[in-house]
Specification:
mainly alpha; two-stranded antiparallel ribbon; disordered C terminus; G-protein coupled receptor; receptor; GPCR_Rhodpsn
Length: 338
């Protein structure tokens, strides 16, 4: 039998590191709870997301809120010197929630980016994503499709990324570990490739546009760049760290594994900051939401300045037009429809 390494036990290798991480998560919770509650309030009571075709954005808010709710439990175990709960049921529920919320956040962010891509690069063609946005049941279907991808965290006993090289590892546990790792990396790598593709195509479209207003294209670029920023900060670093951790675990270098366990857990804690960064995406995606949020929560002097600047841009956008001669008549065609 193998000796149980530190990375495979519930106890942390370095208590001080995890105490610091626990306070970081407490800070994320203190900032994230009021922020996400205020965003939920705006979407439901002020902006009425179901009337403004913002159902996908609302689902991202729900995923972020569920993530924020999980943070105190995770922070508590870190303060106790444990990488996860010693209670198997609590451990599985926490991992299930974290995997589900992460998958939902990524899925809806990618959907928003694809919507911007079709609106800009394939303007005039039928946008299937826009059609899906008008159907609330699609959001339910996406959540249900994410459940099978999260089931591997519930099928077999496992402890916080204990994949390949566990004590008394069986063929079934080895298969389940492989499935879970494939799901984890697929959920990050494939969406990132899609994001890069959408960004390159939208930027190229912006460069080729020589006449007319570019506001819509620039806003689309801001949306996909903000999503890439969230991915680069929250998801890619922990995916790279997880790959390195699995490698050193398989080749059984105990000292390197203890270090990589701490690096991986630290980057996972960093990834929880997406519940604070996602509101940036809301602002770039939806001017109506941004104006409703500013009107509700910003102080009067700042509110007037921000709203006047935004309305000034809107007026300039709607005022831009193209004049053409059609059958002897002069027709003014707005270049941007808000």
């Amino acid at each position: 039998h193998k000796i149980q390494p530190h990375g495979h036990s519930s106890l942390v290798p370095t208590p001080l590191t995890y105490q610091i991480l626990s306070w970081v998560m407490i800070g994320q919770f203190v900032l994230g709870l009021p922020l996400n509650l205020s965003v939920l309030y705006i979407f439901i009571f002020r902006y009425k997301f179901w009337k403004n075709k913002s159902i996908f954005l609302f689902n991202i808010v729900v995923a972020d809120f569920l993530l924020v709710v999980c943070l105190p439990v995770k922070a508590y175990h870190y303060l106790q010197g444990e990488r996860h709960s010693p209670n198997e049921a609590v451990c599985k529920i926490m991992l299930f929630m974290l995997f589900l919320n992460r998958g939902a956040s990524i899925a809806f962010l990618i959907t928003l980016s694809l919507d911007r891509y079709f609106n800009v690069v394939h303007l005039g063609r039928r946008n299937c994503v826009k059609v899906l946005k008008k159907t609330p049941q699609i959001s339910v279907v996406i959540w249900l499709l994410l459940l099978p991808l999260t089931i591997p965290t519930m099928v077999h006993t496992f402890n916080c990324c204990n994949s390949h090289g566990r004590v008394n590892e069986t063929y079934l546990s080895n298969v389940m570990d492989t499935v879970r790792e494939v799901v984890f990396f697929t959920q990050i790598i494939i969406p990132f490739i899609i994001l890069v593709f959408c960004t390159v195509r939208i930027v190229n479209r912006l460069r080729r546009k020589t006449v007319g207003d570019k506001t819509k294209l620039q806003r689309a670029v801001c949306v996909v760049l903000s999503v890439i920023f969230v991915f680069s900060i929250c998801f890619l670093p922990c995916a790279i760290a997880r790959a390195v951790l699995l490698f050193v675990r398989i080749i059984e270098i105990q000292s390197a594994e203890d270090i990589m366990v701490q690096v991986y857990d630290s980057l996972m804690v960093l990834s929880y900051i997406d519940c604070l960064l996602d509101p940036l995406v809301y602002c770039f995606c939806n001017t109506g939401f941004k104006n409703a949020y500013i009107s509700s929560f910003c102080p009067p002097f700042l509110k007037e300045k921000l709203l006047s600047a935004d309305f000034g841009k809107e007026a300039a956008t709607t005022a831009t037009s193209t004049t053409t001669n059609s059958g002897g008549r002069i027709v003014s065609i707005p270049t941007t429809v808000k």
